[in-house]
Amino acid sequence: MGRKFFVGGNWKCNGTPEEVKKIVSVLNEGQVPSSDVVEVVVSPPFLFLGLVKSSLRPDFHVAAQNCWVKKGGAFTGEISAEMLVNLGIPWVILGHSERRLILNESNEFVGDKVAYALSQGLKVIACVGETLEQREAGSTMDVVAAQTKAIADRVSSWSNIVLAYEPVWAIGTGKVATPAQAQEVHFELRKWLFANTSPEIAAATRIIYGGSVNGANCKELAAQPDVDGFLVGGASLKPEFIDIIKSAE
Ligand code: PEP
Hints:
By secondary structure, the protein is of the alpha/beta class.
């Protein structure tokens, strides 16, 4: 089963309206492979979702960077999945390591969020990944399996989930995983899905890599058989994001 290449741009907590307009115009002018070949999703901060959605080319889509774990209500400062759906935002990033580590989001909380977002009709980029300490202790696979299990325990269909493997030590550090390191974990994650969900889910779920991907290293990573795309932070705010999208070819 073919897995369409997926490139996500996580803008994190960056940008002024002027900067956002500039990034959107670079994206709108970029020559990229057709949407039959690559699915592109950019994720601005909540405040800019409307602006980006209304000005972005129609073949690219928009994701929120988070949403609340259940139905909206008395949760000051939160944004609900229902609100995103009402705004016409199709995707949400959940479980990013910055939220897991800085805001103490547990595996179970992230799993609950994924299940709730899916139940409301959102598509989810679900992030997993180990810290440097965990990698050095040899527990990479245990960590990402536990993070993935907390999702698998709560969802029955994976057709609206893209799994992002993002080693924490590679995020925003300029220290990219080698293609072999990325392939090894992606292969193991796919094996885990095979054993714990179904062969069909394992074959169809896109597993994308994130962590210091840029225009120079994307080709080699994209050539790995189990790397189905990227989640890009820093470089998604730069014109080289177009080169990363082109690595789908
Ligand atoms: C990210 O934040 O998801 C990410 C991968 O960041 P960067 O590309 O900057 O390492």
